[in-house]
Amino acid sequence: MKIIKIIALFISISLFPTVLLAGQTSVPDKNLSSLIQEALQNNPQIKSARNRWLAEQYTISQARSLPDPQIGVTYSNVPAAPGDEVDAQRETMYGLQQEVPFPGKLYNNGKIASLQAQRLQQDYYATTYSIIAELKKTYFELYLANKSRVILSKNKFILTQIVQEVRTQYSVGKVPQQDLFRAQVEVSRLSMQLIELQQRSLTLEADINRLLNRQLSIRIATPANLPVTVFPYTAEQLFQKLNSLSPQLQAQLLSLQKDSKMIIASKLDYMPDFDVGAYRIHDNVMHTKGYQVMVGATVPLYFMTKQNNEVKQAQFNYAAGTNDLTNIKQGLLLQLNNDFIIEQRSADLISLVRDTILPQANFSWQAAKASYGTGRVDFLTLLNSFLVLQENELDLQNEIVDHEKAIADIQAILGSSV
Prior knowledge:
This protein is an alpha+beta fold. It has two domains: about 1-65 and about 100-270 and about 305-415, Up-down Bundle (Outer membrane efflux proteins (OEP)); about 70-100 and about 280-300, no CATH class. It is about 70% helix and about 10% strand. A hairpin with a 4-residue loop joins strand 3 (about 275-285) and strand 4. Helix 2 (about 15-20) packs across helix 6 (about 105-170) and helix 6 packs antiparallel against helix 11.
């Protein structure tokens, strides 16, 4: 009779996850890809980085343009002798004056502005990939919390039925009181864990909604099972992709190129800029007309304190940029290596737990359940087998999530869906 009750209990469990999920209030048909598309459209950080890049593109033509010309009108009244206003020379002069930088300066300024715009474009890409990775990892954590709730809710239901059976056995003196207390403690522990997971789910949902720039209270659904992404790359292949794909590295390379152009710009400041003017002259007394042409040039007289220091400043900035490039590359290589190690470890553990440990734990649980029904094992052995199976179920989900989060980090570093 005891065996029949336990078998009936586990047959009824097969319907439990469906009933639990049906009671949740979530947004339907909201998979990860649709959330990513919503983030690309609405995330304020992504939009801000994109607007900065677009704004910087309008500085290129400004940097290549000549300074604004000056239009002037001059009136002169010069008496022939003191107090002689009758024979005074009166002239009106009007014309145009233009500052012309030394050849090559405007072109170099345009290159600097263009490189800065390209740098901000890479910053926009880096921000986009970083936000997507953050969204993915938060979504995977939400899946883990929801999946853990399903597992623990199922196990709480099983354990509650076992407690009822133990209570019945205790009432007729077939099991000691400590077995009943231990079973009740485990049920309470599962209730506590479920409360914590519920709170964590709500927190993670709010974080995802923040990334999507919408109300924090909107519910988000996760799949019943998270598929494991096949990752066919070796560490060497990932390292080779870093130089050409990483937006962070590309941004620093463009910054270094801009610094090299700044050195050229500082050296061009040794060269003079020119002022060219043309004026029309009208003699108001004789009613004659003429013209005046003016050409002037700046003299870098204070080059010892200005241009020399400007060149040294640009050279040191370039040296600092070179060191920054090395530092960023080494940091990215370390992150890439660590994420690859995590991905490989998780992939191995997923196979081990899913294909070996979990079936063994399930077999042990089934055996203990059958033996307990016939009185060949005590309650503590049954409970230990139950808890080991539960731990392995949770371990499998943890490793799947760690695996997917590591891939998300790799994709953020390389700026592509590798």
